[in-house]
Amino acid sequence: MVRKTKAEALATRNLLLDTAERLFFERGVSKTSLADIAKAAEMTRGAIYWHFKNKYDLLQAMMERVRLPPETLLEAPVENAPLQAMRDYAVKMLRDTATNPRRRRVLSIMMHRCEKNEDEAKALTVRQQAAFIDCTSHIRLCMTTAVKLELLPANLDTDKATTMYLALLFGLISNWLFLPDNFDLEADAEALTDAFFPMLHHSPSLLK
C-alpha cells in the first residue's frame, strides 16, 4: 500500500470536512452518517476513521475551521476603548456571517441543524456553553470598564446590558440564517449595531 504524503493526507482530510459540512447543512447532523459522508466523498469509511475517531470528532474539526463568535470576541482589547471594541466585534461578526459562505454554513449547522438528542450534539453544546460563558464575562468586563471610564452611566445595570448586547448579536445572526431574505445583514450591520448603544445611556430599564 502506497503511503500518502502529508499534502495528500491533508487534501483528503479537507475533502471529508467539506463533504461533511455540505451534508450537515443540507440534511442536519443526526440524519447524516459517516457512511453518507464517505459515499459522497467517494471514499471508504476507513478513510474517515484514519482522520477522525467518530462523527463528533469530524464535526468538531469542521467547527474549528470557523472560529465561533464568542471565541473571537475574547481577542478584542477592552482597556482603552471598550465600547469601540464591542461595536467593531459586532459589525465584523454580522458582516462576516453574511459574506463568508463557510461561516454561514457552519453557524447554520450549529444553530438550526444540530439536533440536541445525539451525544455528538450534546458534547458540542458543552463547548458552545463554555464559550458563551466566557463571552458573557468578557462583555460584562467591557461594560464595567466603560462605566469606570465614564463612557457609560455610573448606574448602568451591566448584567442586563450584557444580556441585551448578546441577545442583539446572536439574535440577528440566528434570525438572518433562518430567513436571509428578510433583511440585508451585511448592509445593515452598522445601523443595527449602532442602534444598541444609545439604549445604554437613555433606557430607564437598564439603569439601577
Distance between the termini: 71 Å
Number of contiguous helices: 11
Q: Sheet with the most strands?
A: none
Q: Specify the overall morphology.
A: elongated
The CATH homologous superfamily of the largest domain corresponds to: Tetracycline Repressor, domain 2
Number of strands: 0
Based on CA atoms alone, the radius of gyration comes out at 20 Å
Named CATH architecture of the largest domain: Orthogonal Bundle
| N to C succession of SSEs | HHHHHHHHHHH
CATH class of the largest domain: Mainly Alpha
Low-confidence stretches: none
- Residues in helices, as a percent range: over 70%
Layout of helices and strands:
Blueprint: H1 6-27, H2 34-40, H3 45-51, H4 55-64, H5 69-73, H6 82-99, H7 101-112, H8 119-148, H9 158-178, H10 185-194, H11 197-202
Helix pairs in contact: 1-2, 1-4, 1-7, 4-8, 6-7, 6-8, 6-9, 6-10, 8-9
Describe the structure.
71% of the residues lie in helices and 0% in strands. The chain has 208 residues and is mostly helical. The protein starts with 5 loop residues before the first helix and ends in a 6-residue tail after the last helix. It has two domains: 53 residues, Orthogonal Bundle (Arc Repressor Mutant, subunit A); 137 residues, Tetracycline Repressor, domain 2.
